[in-house]
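**User:** Here is a favour to ask of a fellow structure person. Please take any protein you like and set down a full record of it. No explanation is needed for now; the record alone will do.

**Assistant:**
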Amino acid sequence: MTVSISLKSISDSASVFSERLYGLLQPVGRALLSNPFEDMLTVTRSFCIALDPEGMTVLYGKRSFSKSVLKGASSYSFDKGIPAPDSVASYASLALNELNASGADVALAIPKPWVLLKTAEFPSAVMDNISEVITYEIDRLTPFSKDEAFYDFRVIGVSEGKVSIILAAARKDKVQPYIEALAKNGLVVSRLLFDALPEALGSVGRHIDTDEHLVKSMSTHFEGVRASKAAGVLIQALRPSEGMDLLTRGFRIKEKTPVTVSVVLGLIVLAAVIFSIVAPYLTEERRIEEIDKQIKAKKEEAKKVERLKQEADELQKEIDTVEGFKKKRHMTVDVIKELTSVLPSSVWLTRSRITDPGVELEGYAVTATEMLPKLEASKYFRKAEFASPTVRDAKLNSDRFTLKMEFEGLDKPDTSDNKTVKGAKKDEKK
């Protein structure tokens, strides 16, 4: 028992929550899927015939760019109150020509006494097929069967698992003669209205959005309450969503959801979001590309500088080579000149070799030992000594010698450039 009560409580809570959520999301859905330009772009013309206890009123109005305008009006009074169907059809045809309203939608508005108004409540579960429910329940809610009445309803509230409606019904046999008489005169009634709708909605806390400009224009044709009722009838005729149409018997053609504008707006918003995300990336990419261009330009300049530097280094090497060559040649000349001045005139050199550590000499001398002191005394040489024992050549009557010595006070020559002089004599004397 306790489990059943808990499950029922949970079910009721879920139902109430879903209904409240539906009530909150429904206006949002209508706002997102509605076409804000529909009223502005739709042009409606209505020729409205309103019956009242004083006679009949004919109204011709036009709605465009969300503005309702009274184009013309005529009022006809009869001694016996509401005129007969044939009289209504005759005067309506006359007014149609006078007001130049050919081609306009024809609406018939019946007086309040002909209409039965009633409020009712149904479970919210019937919301999706409420029209069928009303048709099924019409004989319970009114004294008429579904075939004996013209009727329509309007939802006035949804709360706590209930949907509230206001129902308007009129006897078919009382209204049908007027519809048929008008049809014979070429006036096919497309909507069946009643003048008490604003009053009826006001009694349940609802209202029709009236047009003050239209009410003021009515006052130039009618007086008092009649002007207000005429305005209410014309507003219902020009704005079908504001009123009831008893000819529909609660069934309405479901309009396609006007999602075009919403989709366009959604795409615009999506494009704006994507642009806001992509734009910084594109800007940064362009900045990186510009930096890459600058780096590439600098690299080209750096390569040019590097090539110039390499060429300069190569040129400097060539200069150093030439300078070194000149210096070495100058040093070799200095060494040979020093040897010529230091060695005795009796010395005959067969070979001289200038190396890194010093100079090696080979040749013949009358007395080889006398050369050592003279070489040691030179400012260019030191450590003069025989590299091998001297040999006496009997034929030449001279000593054959090989000696070596180191440089002193003179830049050393390049080791790769050894100079050897063969068959040279100290002078021309033998």
